[in-house]
Write a structure and sequence with these properties.
342 residues, alpha/beta, Rossmann fold, Dihydrodipicolinate Reductase, domain 2, six-stranded parallel sheet, 12 helices, 26% strand
């Protein structure tokens, strides 16, 4: 089978490099790109066979199987719509969309064109411990899932951030951005259903020079599955990780089931065991660490198979839309109580 071919539009975040690296390892040919600034230069030097082009040239290239988007977040929806209308499948870095109207347009376009629109939820797709936790919950290891608690602090490193990053009109706000992962994990763990935003809040706690910037956010969700079970889900995100941590964030996921619990420490076990991707399972037989090293990080292979065969193994369209929709609603609720300092 001939190699699948991809083009890149927008090089505004390092997630783009992770996305392309995994796709290239799966056999994708990196054909062309458009971007600007230091990250574009880094990408061009890394993917020396990638030809610089204009967005219109990339969107109109019928030889491309996939367009990968990592531009300014507020521009990603319009580019995705144009690409799908031209016959391209789309993989987009989170946040994939920054407004409810844009999400509705993406949904309609994907359905009418038959093109796929995937979101790269890296905290789940690229982390073996979270992937394994989803697998264990699906296999009934802790009984019926009752509640989820997500904790996702991040390191700000403000001098490395572009201007758009500090403007919620361009970035989408902290819940749309960082909590995109949390919405994805809720749906991957609990399954499809109806999600109510019980409460949500954001504020600027420690960034006085950027009063619009949101550096902390929380959302509390009540998810009713298609079978009628209720899963309570609480999530905290921030840009306040201390510099001494040794990694970009102490991301944690705690799951309570009717017959056990799971704790995931994605990046670091603070003052504990070295390394990343820690998973602790507690059930009726005791407490134990689960080795996740054999768990595949295979999202790119599944995406490739979905393009080739029309299958739906990476994520359903409904999953991607629902994960984005619930964080857009949470952000809207939180913006009504926004606090700049204090």
């Amino acid at each position: 089978m001939a190699s699948l071919r991809l083009g890149v539009i927008g090089i505004e975040h390092l997630h783009l490099f992770e996305m392309v690296d995994q796709l290239a390892a799966t056999g994708f040919e990196t054909v062309c790109h458009v971007g600007q600034g230091s990250l574009e230069e880094l990408y061009r030097n890394w993917r020396g066979n990638s030809e610089p082009r204009t967005p219109a040239d990339i969107i109109g290239d019928d030889s491309l199987d996939l367009v990968v988007l990592a531009g300014v977040p507020s521009t990603r929806a319009a580019t995705a719509v144009a690409a799908m209308q031209a016959g391209r499948h789309v993989l987009v870095a989170k946040p994939a969309v920054t407004s409810a109207d844009d999400l509705a347009l993406i949904d309609r376009t994907a359905r009418s064109t038959g093109r796929r629109w995937w979101v790269f939820f890296s905290e789940r797709l690229s982390n073996r411990a979270i992937t394994k936790a989803v697998e264990l919950v699906g296999a009934g290891a802790i009984g019926d899932l009752v509640s989820i608690s997500g904790w996702a602090p991040h390191s700000l490193q403000p001098t490395s951030r572009p201007d758009w990053f500090f403007n919620p009109m361009l970035s989408g706000g902290i819940l749309v951005d960082l909590a995109a992962h949390q919405g994805d994990q809720l749906l991957a763990l609990a399954g499809p259903g109806i999600t109510e935003v019980a409460s949500a809040t954001v504020r600027n706690a420690a960034s006085p020079t950027c009063p619009q910037f949101q550096d902390i956010g929380r959302m509390s969700l009540r998810h009713t599955t298609s079978s009628g079970r209720v899963v309570l889900s609480d999530h905290h995100v921030d840009w306040l990780s201390p510099s001494g941590l040794g990694t970009w964030g102490d991301v944690r996921l705690n799951l309570v089931g009717a017959a056990g619990t799971i704790e995931v420490r994605s990046n670091i076990d603070v003052t504990g065991i070295d390394g990343s991707e820690h998973l602790i399972l507690v059930d009726g037989d005791g407490a134990r660490r689960i080795d996740c090293t054999a768990t595949d990080v295979d999202w790119a292979a599944r995406l490739s198979a979905d393009i080739a065969s029309g299958s739906d193994s990476l994520m359903s369209h409904e999953h991607a839309v629902s994960a984005c929709e619930l964080t857009l609603r949470a952000q809207a609720v939180a913006d009504g109580s926004y606090s700049s300092g204090g």
